[in-house]
Amino acid sequence: MKRLLSIELQKICKNRASKVLTITYFGLLSLIALVASIKFDVGPIHINIADQGVFNFPFIWHFNSFIAVFAKVFFAVIIVSMMSNEYSYGTLKQNLIDGMSKQEFIASKFITVVTFSAVSTAFVFLISLILGLFFSSYTEVGIIFSRMEYLLAYFVNLVGFFSFCLFVGILIKRSAFALGFLFIWFLIECLLVYSKYGFTSSVSRFLPLESMSQLLIEPFTKLSAIKTINSQIGIVNVKDYDVHFTTILIVLTWTAIFVYSSYLLLKKRDL
Predict the structure, then answer these.
(1) From start to end of the chain, where are the E strands?
(2) Which has the least CB within 10 A, 110, 116, 201, 225?
(3) What are phi and psi for residue 20, nearest 5 degrees?
């Protein structure tokens, strides 16, 4: 496993675009701290995000995980480009000639996906812990390390999404078309989920991207200011913000499908 990961990391490090995107990705995760400076007005109500308790434990685990998950698009570009380069530069064929099996090749990609997802999760954990220790009104150990299932949901979200990107990158050899396919798939799911004639929630929760989005429900409506606004205009919030095991299982099932399908594609394809 260590050897396979080392091979993939070398490929990323030797590609300038991948290095820039990786640095940008982790740079964006670091910008979560700037959320504290956001201020805006909603009618007569003045809202300062930092004053709303977004950095209070344990809410910070939910809030930061939800914000950080949007940065995954940058690493998705890296994964799709990585697969495109394997075909363009002939490194895939060379790896196979050098004795790497197709199963090992897919395993090396998936190990890279899991590694970057784990590093991203650890990065968000560290940033959240530092911000929480500085700004949280609650610093008891029991409170600090409660509700950390949101970090698990963040990790599973990344692994699932990056596995989808891996599959699309192998299915469609050119990165531009692969990224276009991802965007079109996103639009299709939006139509199926949110259109008047779309799927019911009980069905749409099994769609790949929608199931991933259900891992982390937006946390903004949990803020006191938003609750005040909603109560004034008569909106009753009935959202379920919990991380559910069934949703994690659905995403992990899709992950297994994407990885195995990637292997089948590579196995049957004439390189």
Answers:
(1) 39-42, 45-48
(2) 201
(3) -65, -45
pTM confidence score? 0.90
Burial of residue 115 (CB within 10 Å: 0-12, 13-18, 19+) is middle
String of DSSP letters for 48-102: EGGGGTTTSTTHHHHHHHHHHGGGHHHHHHHHHHHHHHHHHSSHHHHHHHTT--H
**Is residue 135 a contact partner of residue 55, using CB atoms and an 8 Å limit?**
yes
pLDDT tens-digit series, residues 85-133:
787 777 877 877 777 888 988 999 999 999 999 999 999 999 999 888 8
Whether residue 193 contacts residue 207, with contact meaning beta carbons closer than 8 Å, is answered with yes
Q: Look-up: residue for tokens 């996103």?
A: 186
**Rounded mean pLDDT of the chain?**
85
Cα 106–Cα 112–Cα 113 angle in degrees, nearest 5:
90
* Cα distance between residue 206 and residue 240, in whole Å: 17
Which tokens sit at 121? 């999760």
Q: At 182, is the pLDDT very low, low, confident or very high (cuts 50, 70, 90)?
A: very high
Per-residue pLDDT tens digits for 133-152 = 888 888 899 999 999 999 99
- Token match 């091979």: residue? 7
Q: Which residues pair with 45 in a beta bridge?
A: 42
